[in-house]
Amino acid sequence: MASESVSRSGDDIRKGFIVISAATCPLLFIINAPFGRFTLLNDHVLSVDGIKSWIFMELFSPTAFIYAFTQAPFLDHTPPVSAPQGLLAGLFLSHYLNRAVISPLRTPSRSKSHLSVVLCGICFNLFNGLMMGTYLRSDIAHAFLSDAFRRPLYWSGTLIWLAGLLGNILHDEILLNIRRNAKAKGKAKAEHYAIPHGYLYRYISYPNYFCEWVEFSLMLPRAYKGHQWYRDKFAEYPTERKAVVPFIF
Asked: Residues 8-27: pLDDT tens digits?
């Protein structure tokens, strides 16, 4: 009986991810989420500080993950946490340590965000953290990962995740340097955008998103819309550069 309940919980989690992705992805190809380069006027009544609001909304995901992983409120039965489960939990939290805390605190400046972006971000991050934590703590994950340390595929996946994290940090650093140089020259925040170059920027507009995909995220619509923004803003933008998948898209 317990296994049937756990199986249903696992199915619900998978269905939840599919439904959320299917509902959100098409909308983001149409709507420019009002933050970053697509922000509204800085004096808009619903505009909030870009760095502080980012940290605030992103911290909901690791917080919800820790709660779901340690307390398992949606599971009827939870076996002890295995070492492979613990390692994967650590990878998830490491990603969000960089995404929610380290990266924004190292950002010299960031355009304001619309309050709607923050509220949507909180909702998504709550769901993402709860579902990831619940699934990773479930009997299904425990059974699947029981001998994971003896599987080459597990360690291969971990190395791919690490490559994605380092690639994400590397390409974010290129963008941060553009802002640092603009700030050093005393330019206004509206002028801190320029064409990034180096590494995978030779081939695509959003290698930081691509590398985050390699970890575990999906940011295709945002990359596509941002790629169009670059091409519209900079007449000299490299025509051979793709949006997010080298040589393809």
From this structure: 555 666 676 677 767 776 76
